[in-house]
Write a structure and sequence with these properties.
binds adenosine-5'-diphosphate, 779 residues, alpha+beta, single chain, transmembrane transporter activity, 3 domains, eight-stranded mixed β-sheet
């Protein structure tokens, strides 16, 4: 059954050598009760551990059922201990934090015996050793004799072929010793029992065979045996602890020291708490910023003007005075000129804009630099008027009005809002009717006033009113006021010289039946201060009005004349270049190309989608054909967003330091736990646990600790947001700034777990490396 051949085991401590086993050769029968007697320190335990595979011999061979163990791997030894050997120790070695049943089941748990079978076998073993009635007690509620019975039950539960007992009655009184010996004697009927004892009386009474040991050598053997079979009929079933078993072991262990575990989890959760709060605050602030942005900044439209500033213009660093430049003057384009990009707004592009998904933007405004031939009537006096809010009083004729209009970026005067349903919604969103009503048709125009009901004085002067700075006007003086828009053909007369001149602004022109009648339908006030820049204060009208006027005028005589002439048909001056000519034609209403397009996105996210859509148009186009847009809101939000990110990174970095501190702490705590549980490691190894399984037990413990500290951290951080928000509200009037994002919370719990497991893994590996025999000897 078992054969030791010239087994040697030496211990080297410092310079001294202890020959614990010095060339031991002996064989055992499959069924017998062998007692090994000898003085303390003679090597008995070392031999027993050697037979049980807890302490591997230095040289010689141990042959089990005809199989040499010389080439056994660690896993083979683990499996051998688990399958074939049962250990009984003097100090019982019961795992205190597990139930009696769990203790007895542990060996089978390690070898993966199914639950039902495992439980059945464990109960049978406990009944066999006479513990049936005490099965539900906890280990610390048992007497010494009962503890030893549990140990015996554990050793025989999986029905091993070899039972190894190391002074099993050493800690028991005489009466109990006799009972235990009887039990072991009974067990030896079915298997090989090897018992180490220094009590010759016990050995004589119970054992079939007595081997005397001294100085690591067998002195005499009462019933020697020599194995004659060489046949190898040895089989092993490998052991493996599931992570679930490891978790259970760690959980029951942790349960015995609740307060300590809680404090540990709390201390190591501080890092998580700080990071969670930083994230909660920063995402809260970001949300606030986003809200403010979509309220205010989103009102800045994406603008596509005919003349755009190309922000990507290359920098000119070449300022050196080279040889070629030294003696000459170099003509050079200015930076501003270089940055200027002419957008070719074509019909195709207009269609492209029309195809913007209406879910992204319902509001698109087209501005045309078209002049309008407007006449106003005040107290019977007819005058030309404009809807511009710049000072045009200094130039009486329309040519100067035109140049002033061209000089202002707002186009030909007045603000333009989009037409149709979307225009109505747009006005309703930002403006409140102070008097009159919202515009109902393209011929209805409105007067925009600021939040204090003030409006631009030039706008009033330009429609023919005589007003002084600070003067107050009744609403009804403005609401309902009418204007006439005159067709080019009626407005201009052709002189024999070929140039055109406006007819005199009189009642005949005013009352012309083909005139359009415009009416101020209402006075509109901005709803919030942040909306003040959407439409400038003064007269505003729909882009449909301009479109209608262009339609009326695009085939007029003056437009035709201007198109075919190289001079300004109003002044007779020479037209220098194509751009100037185009501007003139535009002004006279001869072009349907808008001077600028403004797109108002629904919100920030959709704005990005629109920008992507606009960028797509430029794909693969020549530089000159690209369309450059201006995204004012974007430049502002990029700035604030970037700043917020930077602050968050710095704060998270600081909070990260506390996380690292917690990780180091976890390492220390796991290390102490390893020291505390050395005995348990020995027991598990004796039962056949692999190194990996031991690592797993401690990894499981740190996993529990990591999850606990993560969850605790997140919960505390969440609770902390309540007072933080209260303080912030009283200080800044912002509500619910700190908001812990659930995704962040989950990530933090995962991070906490991973870091804790990492921190505890090194001590766990140390635990696994512990020598089983040494671990069992420790107290
Ligand atoms: P017994 O069981 O007969 O009391 P042991 O087998 O425990 O004897 O010990 C035999 C000898 O080996 C003793 O001298 C003991 O000090 C020594 N010994 C046992 N284990 C170790 C060890 N891990 N390191 C050093 N010496 C050891």
């Amino acid at each position: 059954m078992l054969e030791l051949k010239h087994i040697k085991k030496y211990f080297y401590v410092g310079d001294s050598v202890t020959k614990a086993l010095d060339d031991v050769s002996v064989s055992f029968r499959p069924k017998e009760f062998v007692a090994i007697l000898g003085p303390s320190g003679s090597g008995k335990t070392t031999m027993l551990n050697g037979i049980g595979g807890l302490d591997i011999y230095d040289s010689g061979d141990l042959i089990i059922k005809g199989k040499s163990t010389k080439d056994f791997s660690e896993a083979d030894w683990d499996a051998y201990r688990n399958n074939s050997v049962g250990f009984i120790f003097q100090s019982y070695n019961i795992i205190g934090h597990l139930s009696i049943l769990d203790n007895v089941e542990m060996g089978m748990t390690l070898s993966g015996v199914p639950n039902n079978e495992k439980k059945e076998k464990a109960i049978k073993a406990l009944e066999r050793v006479g513990l049936g009635p005490h099965m539900n007690k906890k280990p610390n509620q048992l007497s010494g004799g009962q503890m030893q019975r549990v140990a015996i039950a554990r050793a025989i539960a999986n029905d091993p072929e070899i039972l190894l007992c190391d002074e099993p009655t050493g800690a028991l009184d005489t009466e109990t010793s006799v009972q235990i010996m009887e039990l072991i004697k009974e067990l030896s009927q079915e298997r090989l029992v090897i018992m180490v004892t220094h009590n010759p009386a016990l050995a004589k009474e119970y054992a079939d065979r007595i081997i005397n040991f001294a100085d690591g050598k067998i002195q005499d053997d009462s019933n020697p045996y020599s194995e004659d079979t060489d046949k190898d009929n040895f089989e092993l079933k490998k052991t493996k602890m599931t992570f679930w078993t490891a978790l259970k072991l760690s959980y029951t262990n942790i349960k015995t020291k609740k307060a300590r575990t809680f404090l540990t989890a709390f201390a190591s959760s501080i890092g998580i708490i700080s990071i969670a709060i930083v994230l909660a605050l920063s995402s809260g602030f970001q949300k606030q910023i986003d809200k403010t942005q979509s309220n205010t900044l989103a009102q800045f439209p994406i603008t596509i003007s005919q003349i755009a500033s190309n922000q990507t213009a290359p920098k000119n660093n070449d300022k050196k005075l080279t040889k070629a430049k030294k003696t000459k003057v170099t003509a050079k384009l200015s930076q501003a000129d270089k940055a200027t990009h002419i957008n070719k707004i074509t019909k195709k592009y207009m269609n492209y804009i029309d195809n913007i998904n209406p879910e992204l933007s319902k509001t698109v405004t087209y501005t045309y630099s078209t002049g309008m031939n407007i006449l106003s009537e005040n107290n019977g006096k007819i005058k030309t008027a404009t809807f511009s809010n710049t000072d045009t009083s200094k130039g009486a004729n329309s040519a100067s009005a035109m140049s002033s209009a061209m000089a202002t970026s707002t186009g030909i005067g007045g603000s333009v809002y989009p037409s149709g349903k979307s225009g109505q919604a747009f006005l309703k969103k930002h403006y409140k009717v102070v008097s009159g009503s919202m515009p109902a048709s393209a011929n209805d125009i409105v007067l925009i006033v600021d939040s204090d009901n003030s409006t631009n004085i030039n706008a009033l002067k330009n429609i023919g009113l005589t007003v002084k700075d600070g003067q107050k006007l009744d609403f009804n003086k403005l609401v309902g006021k009418e204007f006439k828009v005159v067709n080019n053909n009626d407005y201009y007369k052709k002189l024999p010289t070929g140039t055109f001149l406006p007819n005199s602004a009189d009642s005949k022109l005013y009352d012309n039946s083909s005139n359009k009648t415009l009416k101020i339908s209402g006075i509109l006030r901005v709803k919030s201060k942040s909306s003040e820049n959407i439409l400038a204060s003064g007269i505003a009208y729909s882009d449909q009005l301009t479109k209608n006027i262009i339609n009326d005028n695009k085939n007029s005589d003056i437009v035709a004349a201007q198109k075919g002439s190289s001079t300004n048909v109003l002044t007779g001056a020479n037209v220098e270049d194509a751009t100037t000519k185009a501007t003139l034609i535009n002004y006279l209403g001869g072009s349907t190309t808008p001077s600028s397009i403004m797109i108002y996105p629904n919100n920030f996210k959709n704005k990005d989608k629109i920008l992507k859509y606009l960028d797509k148009y430029n794909n693969g186009k020549k530089k000159a054909d690209k369309i450059v847009y201006t995204d004012m809101a974007g430049s502002v939000s990029n700035l604030t967003g970037g700043l917020m990110d930077a602050i968050t990174y710095v704060l998270v970095a600081f909070a990260g330091i506390s996380l690292v501190t917690s990780m180091i702490m976890i390492s220390i705590i796991t290390y102490t736990s390893v020291l505390e549980r050395t005995k348990e490691i020995g027991i598990l190894k004796a039962l056949g646990a692999r190194k990996k399984d031991i690592t797993r037990v401690f990894d499981a413990e740190t996993t529990i600790l990591g999850v606990a500290s993560g969850v605790l951290g997140v919960v505390i951080a969440y609770l902390a947001t309540i007072p933080i928000n209260a303080v912030l509200k009283s200080m800044t009037d912002l509500t619910n700034v700190a908001q812990l994002n659930p995704i962040h919370a989950i990530i933090l719990i995962v991070v906490s777990t991973v870091l804790t497991v990492l921190g505890g893994h090194i001590p766990a590996r140390m635990a696994a490396k512990k020598d089983a025999a040494t671990a069992l000897r420790s107290e």
